[in-house]
Structure formats: structure tokens, C-alpha cells
Design brief:
The protein is 51% helix and 10% strand. It contains 9 helices and 4 strands, in the order H-H-H-H-H-H-H-E-E-E-H-E-H.
């Protein structure tokens, strides 16, 4: 059995969520509304000249101007563009690139909309076990990058019934982040206040780790 393309699954799910909550709903992406987030997703896949501003600070102004322009499009059009995905000439249209670059991106942003909503009661989604395994595999391969600024050692430990742990950052003192794969991933992507994880360690390690800025 082939592994489903979870990036496509989450793409459709966030498009449905956009349609449900409207263009002015909050997200966990700072002061971005759902309109801003939809525009970000579109620019990222269709305007490489502007998307580079996401990682290159001196080009951020240009990227923001392009995104602001995209955000002015009619809301139904933005939802349609997110749902349909990038044009064929975009690298993101390649299945391998889509899976590698979009699975975590769309999962996290889907949760950014869900968990910022006033009606969110703290209940997490029950993911397909294959999807959870995919997210855990991503944590194994990208954990060192995601936690590279940690001031102490970091061990990730699953608690969603499938077991497994991985050391993603060395250190003489260490914290262990315990939770389901999806929650650890959200924590790793900076959603600290909305991820359902437990962090174990010495009082000193915990204080040092939780007060650190881990943003990439």
C-alpha cells in the first residue's frame, strides 16, 4: 500500500477550514488573519521572487508587499487557489517536493487556524496512524535543525502508543519533550502555548530551555 500524500490531505483540510471560519479569523501566526495566511501559502508556492523574503530578512519588505497584494483578492478566489495548489511550472507541483516541503507546513498552518479559534476546546485531532508516523519521521530527520538553538540537550519521546525517542540536540544537561508526534511537531515549530506536550528535566534545564528563543 502506497503512503498517502498527507500534504494534499492537509491542503484540502485547511481550505475547508478557511471556508468555515471566513477571511478575518485569527491564527497562531502573530497578527495574521486567515486572509493573510492564505495569501502566504499562495505566495510561497507561486512567487519564488517574493517567497525568498521568508528566509532572507533584507528581502522581507518585497515579500510582504507581494503578499499584501495577493491578500486583496476575493476570499473565495484565495480559498480556491489554496485548494487547487500551485501551477504546473512551480517546483511545489512535483509530488516529491510537495510531500517534503508541504506536509509539515500545511499540517502546522491547519492547526494554526483550528487552535486560534474561539470555539477550540483543546481537543486534538485523531490522526491516521500512518500520518502520525510520517510526522514522527520528519521530527527524526529535521529535529536537529528545529532545535539547533536549544541551550540544553533535547530528547523527543513519543507518547501516542507507537513508542520511540530521538535525541535531536546534544548537551550535558537535557530536557525530554513528551507527547504525540503531532504535538511535538507543533512545539518544534514554535506553537509552545498550544501544543499538548510535557517537558521533563531538572529545574535548571527546564528554566533555561523554556525561556530560550528557539526560532530559526
Amino acid at each position: 500500500m502506497s503512503t498517502p500524500n498527507w500534504a494534499q490531505h492537509e491542503r484540502k483540510a485547511i481550505a475547508d477550514e478557511f471556508a468555515l471560519v471566513g477571511p478575518d479569523a485569527p491564527t497562531l501566526c502573530g497578527d495574521w488573519t486567515t486572509r493573510d495566511l492564505a495569501a502566504h501559502l499562495i505566495v510561497r508556492e507561486t512567487r519564488p521572487d517574493a517567497a525568498v523574503g521568508i528566509v532572507v530578512k533584507r528581502l522581507a519588505g518585497w515579500g510582504e508587499r507581494v503578499q499584501d497584494g495577493v491578500a486583496k483578492r476575493p476570499w473565495p478566489k484565495l480559498i480556491e487557489q489554496v485548494r487547487n495548489g500551485p501551477p504546473l511550472l512551480s517546483a511545489f507541483s512535483l509530488p516529491g517536493v510537495d510531500r517534503a516541503a508541504n506536509t509539515a507546513e500545511y499540517f502546522v498552518h491547519h492547526e494554526d487556524v483550528r487552535r486560534a479559534g474561539r470555539d477550540w476546546d483543546g481537543n486534538t485531532r485523531t490522526l491516521d496512524p500512518m500520518f502520525s508516523e510520517t510526522l514522527w519521521t520528519m521530527l527524526n530527520s529535521r529535529g536537529a535543525l528545529l532545535f539547533r538553538r536549544a541551550p540544553v540537550g533535547v530528547l523527543l519521546k513519543r507518547s501516542d502508543g507507537r513508542g520511540g525517542q530521538v535525541s535531536v540536540h546534544p548537551g550535558s544537561d537535557r530536557v525530554t519533550i513528551v507527547g504525540p508526534a503531532q504535538e511535538i511537531l507543533l512545539y518544534a515549530f514554535g506553537r509552545k502555548d498550544h501544543a499538548h506536550v510535557r517537558i521533563d528535566g531538572s529545574p535548571k534545564a527546564l528554566d533555561t530551555f523554556t525561556s530560550a528563543d528557539l526560532s530559526l
